[in-house]
Amino acid sequence: MNHVAFAFIAGAIAVACASASAGPSCPSPLKGSKIPSATWSDRSTKPGYYAPDSAVINVGNGQVVNGSASYATVKSKMGSLFAGAEFSLVGGVGTASNLPAGVYTCSYDGPRFRSGGKTLEATVTVACTNSCGSL
Questions:
Q1: pTM
Q2: CA 6 to CA 49: how far, in whole Å?
Q3: Mapped to the 3 state alphabet, what secondary structure does 34-53 carry?
């Protein structure tokens, strides 16, 4: 069984995965509609959104618009573009020091979008146990 947690960050998306028998994997690309809306929890076996590593970033100046951005914040900022947006894998399977042992991360960059007259990007992190490949 695979478990995944997600977190959003402007410009990129990260997914966390923990490995069982087969090595962890990160799907790419990842559609916005496949990103878990539930917050990741170490008490759950289901994939989850990982807000601490998610953000919305102003492309023009590189400044963070929303740090530790929740799923709701990213979805709201992206509006109707969110569900169909393709988030690209950045690097491979990773880990985060603030996640328990056995939890891996997959980071993704979202497409650029306009909000409030500015060009923004979202970065998302998903946390999971086993493989994130089921997203």
A1: 0.78
A2: 3
A3: HCCCCECCCCCCCCEECHHH
Decide if pLDDT at 103 tops 90: no
pLDDT of residue 16: 43
**Predicted confidence (pLDDT) per residue in 1-33, tens digit:** 444 444 444 444 444 444 334 567 888 899 999
CA dihedral 41, 132, 106, 29 (to 10 degrees): -130
CA angle (29 as vertex; 48, 124 as ends), nearest 5: 40
* String of DSSP letters for the chain: ---EEEEEEETEEEEEE--SSSPP---SSEEGGGS--SBP-TT-SS-EE-GGG-EEEETTT--EEEESB-HHHHHHHHGGGTTTPEEEEEEEEE--TTS-TT-EEEEEEPPPEEETTEEEEEEEEEEESS-GGG-
